[in-house]
Known about the structure:
Elements: E1 5-9, E2 18-21, E3 34-39, E4 42-52, E5 67-68, H1 77-89, H2 94-101, H3 104-107, E6 117-122, H4 124-128, H5 139-149, E7 155-156, H6 157-162, H7 167-175, E8 179-184, H8 205-216, E9 222-228, H9 234-247, E10 251-255, H10 263-272, E11 276-280, H11 286-298, E12 301-306, E13 318-324, H12 341-352, E14 355-360, H13 365-372, E15 377-381, E16 392-397, E17 403-404, E18 407-408, H14 409-420, E19 424-428, E20 437-440, E21 457-459, E22 469-471, E23 478-479, E24 493-496, H15 500-510, E25 516-519, H16 529-539, E26 543-547, E27 560-565, H17 569-572, H18 579-591, E28 602-607, H19 613-621, H20 623-637, E29 644-652, H21 657-671, E30 678-690, E31 693-702, H22 705-720, E32 729-734
Parallel strand pairs: 9-14, 9-15, 10-12, 10-13, 11-12, 13-14, 16-28, 19-26, 19-27, 25-26, 27-28
Antiparallel strand pairs: 1-2, 1-4, 3-4, 3-5, 6-7, 6-8, 17-18, 20-24, 21-22, 22-23, 29-31, 29-32, 30-31
Helix pairs in contact: 1-2, 1-12, 5-7, 8-9, 18-20, 19-20
Bound molecules: adenosine-5'-diphosphate and zinc ion (2 copies).
Amino acid sequence: MTRRYLQLALPSPLRQTFDYILPAKIDPPPVGGRVRVPFGRQELIGICLGISEHTTVPDAKLKAAIETLDSEPVLPDSLFTLCRWAAEYYQHPLGEVFDTALPVLLRQGEGLAAPGEIRWRPTRLGELYPLDGSIKRAHKQLAALMTLREYPEGMIVPLLSGLGIERPTLLALEKKQLVERISLAPPAAEKALTGLREPPLSLNPEQKTAVDDVSVSLGRFQPFLLFGVTGSGKTEVYLQAIAAVLARGEQALVLVPEIGLAPQTVARFHARFQTEIAVLHSGRNERERLDAWRAARSGRAGIVIGTRSAVFTPLARPGLIIVDEEHDLSFKQQDGFRYNARDLAVRRAQLENTPVLLGSATPSLESLANARSQRYRLLTLKQRAAGAGEPLFKLIDLRHQPLREGFSEPLINIMSRTLERGEQVLVFINRRGFAPVLLCHDCGWQAHCKRCDARPTLHRPAFPGQGMRLHCHHCGTESAPPVQCPSCGSTDLRPVGIGTERADDLLRQRFPKTPLFRVDRDSTRRKDALATLYHDIHAADAAILVGTQMLAKGHHFPNVTLVALLDIDGGLFGADFRAPEHMAQLIVQVAGRAGRAEKPGLVLLQTHQPEHPLLHELISTGYAAFAERALEERRQLAFPPAGFLVLIRAEATRAETPTEFLEAVAGIATGLGIADVQYWGPVPAPMEKRAGRFRAHLLLQATRRAPLHELLALLVPRIESLPAARRVRWSVDVDPQELG
Ligand code: ADP
Ligand code: ZN
Ligand code: ZN
């Protein structure tokens, strides 16, 4: 018989497939099925890519597969294709792509479908077996057999152990062929419930157009961009589009940002639909994730809600993909397999012939450009759904203001009046902790992280008795601040700048009677802390909310009528070309937290740059006008979406190594002679040293994707085989979101 060989994708950083002998004694796996194989001294689980009668691997190096785990592919064709496509597009090893796509327990070998229920029952022989024979002396076996005879349809294990019948006893009886195990399969092809628990809201004309447009596109590929101002009722559009999907007997996949998956989001879907909702995010344990994955795959869950990696969740009957807050950075994985879930969602919809709905009040420039070129259909919601107007923006020019520790007098005055009316104030600050800088007042020395080119943030004690701490947000290092200046010996060390903790202190002194809630990563570490905070904020009258980005996302605070952004200048001048876009999104999203139906919202922005053109555009004409101007700037630079980027990063413990390595890479790349690609660098990264390692960048730019991908396909294998590649950590980031 001819030998057959398996081609496998294994979870390994090597960009290659692996050949194994398919021994006669194991079942041939289907393409897309899992196989257990020896790998070095360990065993790995790989995915079968194909079976062939040939291999180029020499005999001596070939090993035999150990076990086939599946009789059907773990992922449907569409997702298998998506993974292969993504591995190529992002230049990432396929085995690691599958690793991202599959729940951990499946990667560890757990069964694909939920196991059927196991029951023990007497065999025919067991039913007739004389109880006064040899078994009489085996007391436990006798008792077990007598019990089981009373349950001819079988007993489940928990019931048996409850009666003191143990597994060894059952195994002994099984050996004598007196009892047997049966496994009851779970119901095949499960249907999702389609009913509603509550009536839908009656839609305004803009919402109705949006729902109708999506509904008539069901069953074919069509991307939509739902550009709706904050509070315009995008969620209601999602809900009613999903109702149409369920009515067709199909399922909907909803992707949300990391932080957007508050219990409230899921609760809103539960309140509307009867169907099971599968929830996939990092807060769930592996067992829960696998259960949700199975419910999606079997078709039982009509709705699947999850963060980034949920884009790989299989659906028995895919009907619609929704990406909420599509501009959010958390859809892009920033390490390892650097995929963008929003972009993969569009690709997936194309493979599965479904519409895909990207929603945001502040769409990414990429999506706006796609809407402009009519690759995406644009749906707009210009009005707030519940009848309130858009908030009013006002700049406070900090140049001529006496600043009382970050808060200008006009700001404090307007805050007082808002609170006196029994309303709430939201104060947004870009950084957590107490203060971003510790400065010597005598010589100007500033605390520095030893492992990073960065200043550590001063934090308040985490528990009573502890002192202030210096905490580097880049490498995690913590230390006690020095008592004396290491440079001049002075003891006059002062915190400079304002983080959320310090704002908390200052505002408590200024408004001692007003309840204050701080919402940042430090105040919400405990499980349920965020939900509790939201609840208390809703229950309160006049109150101050102080917080970071966490406050900017997806949550409505009906009592907030004043939003203050303490310092927006940092964002306007960030090193990254996307900094203004992100700042504008943040401003609009934070502002969108303000204003209940009846009470209009006011947004105050403190700045030293009141004449900044982008800022002006944003507050006088709105996000759409801002985006137009920003798109024009990108076009002039041929930056995304008007051009395409690939960032090759390298880092090492010796300062020169990454740059030397990237110089070699650039040399190979230019030698490949592919026209229309520009090279920038290598240059040290904006933060050259981080966590004790030096970092450098090589940026590739082109006005079309094709030459970049042609180049990468040739270049990456060459980089892999460079001896110097073993002395650095390097990565390829296709469509990078941040150049840091
Ligand atoms: P978005 O997701 O666009 O920020 P939401 O969907 O959260 O907005 O809607 C904001 C508020 O408006 C919610 O309280 C929602 O219940 C309400 N709302 C949405 N659509 C309607 C409608 N058609 N009629 C009345 N209220 C609506
Ligand atoms: Zn000093
Ligand atoms: Zn550090």
